[in-house]
Amino acid sequence: MPEGHSVHRIARQFALHFVGHEVAVSSPQGRFAEGAKRLDGRRMTDSRAIGKQLFLEFSDDRWLRVHLGIYGAWDFAGELTADASIGAPRVTRLRMSEQEKPEPDAGQFPPPPVGAVRVRLLTERTVADLRGPTACEVLTPDEVQAVIDRLGPDPLVDDPEAGEARFVAAVRTKSTPIGVLLMDQSVVSGIGNVYRAELLFRARLDPHTPGRNVPEEVLRELWRDWTVLLREGVRLGQMMTMDGLDEEAYRAALADRADRHWVYHRAGLPCRVCGTPIVMELAAGRKLYYCPTDQR
C-alpha cells in the first residue's frame, strides 16, 4: 500500500501539471460516471496530500478525494517530470503507487485507457488515469474538512510543534500497542507497514508496548524521526530507512529495496545489528517485523 511519501509525491505531480488548468474528467470504466460529470470541464485549483489521502480541488468548491488503498495507482502520461522537482528528467509515462515506474511511450497523446480506469483527468498536455482505489468520491468543502478532522497529524502539513503535541497526546491516552497505534491514521497520518516497522526498530521500541507506557520523550523522538523519514521519502521517491551508509552501500540501497531497511520484510534473516533472526507476526491483520533482542 502506498505510504505518506508516495501520496505527497502524487500531489506534487498534480500541482505541477494540473493545477491552474481546465480538466476533462471522465470514467472510462463507468463506475465514476456521475462523479466525473460533476467535475468535467472545471479548473483544478489545488492539490493536497494528508497522510494517505489525496484531495484535488476544482472550481465551484468541488473536491475529488482519493485513497489508493492496497491496489490503487495513478498512471500519468504526457509532459511530465520523473519526480516533480525542478531540473528532474523528462518522461512521457509514469506509474505512481507504492513504487514509481517510468513506462514506455504509448506513441500517442492521450493514450487509450488501459484496463479498469476509474477516472481519467485530462488537460491539453497531461493525462492521469486512476485504477483500483479504495476511495474515489466528489466532496464539498465541509465534507473534506470532516475527513481531515478524523485524521492524525502529518509532519508535512501540520505545524511541527502542534503536530508533535497531538501525536503524543493521542498515544499516551491509549492501552493499544504502539505497533498498532502507528498504523492508526487517526493517531498519525501516513505511516504504513514499512515505516511502522522501521520507526520502531530505529527507536529500539518493543512494538507490543502499550501506548500509554511509552515514555513521552520516546514518543517525541518517534514523531521527529517520522518527520525526517517522510521528508527523505518524498525527496527520493523511495522508503529509505537505513542511515549511516557509506557511498557504495547507499547506492546499493537505492538500487535494491532489500538493502534499504533494517527489519521490514526480513523475517528469519539476521538482525543487521545483533544477528538475532527477525520475527514476523500479525498485528491488527498486518505483518509486523521486529528484532526480539534489540526491541525489548
UniProtKB/TrEMBL annotation:
Entry cofactors: Zn(2+)
Gene Ontology MF: a single term: oxidized pyrimidine nucleobase lesion DNA N-glycosylase activity
Residue ranges constituting the FPG-type domain according to the UniProt record: 262-296
Domain of life (superkingdom): Bacteria
Cross-referenced Gene3D superfamilies: 1.10.8.50, MutM-like, N-terminal
Sequence ranges assigned to domain Formamidopyrimidine-DNA glycosylase catalytic in this UniProt record: 2-93
Keywords: DNA damage, DNA repair, DNA-binding, Glycosidase, Hydrolase, Lyase, Metal-binding, Multifunctional enzyme, Zinc, Zinc-finger
PROSITE patterns: FPG_CAT, ZF_FPG_2
Pfam families for the chain: Fapy_DNA_glyco (PF01149), H2TH (PF06831), zf-FPG_IleRS (PF06827)
Enzyme Commission no: 4.2.99.18
GO process annotations (BP): base-excision repair
Enzyme category, top tier: lyase
Entry similarity comment: Belongs to the FPG family.
Record's protein name: DNA-(apurinic or apyrimidinic site) lyase
Taxon lineage: Bacteria, Bacillati, Actinomycetota, Actinomycetes, Micrococcales
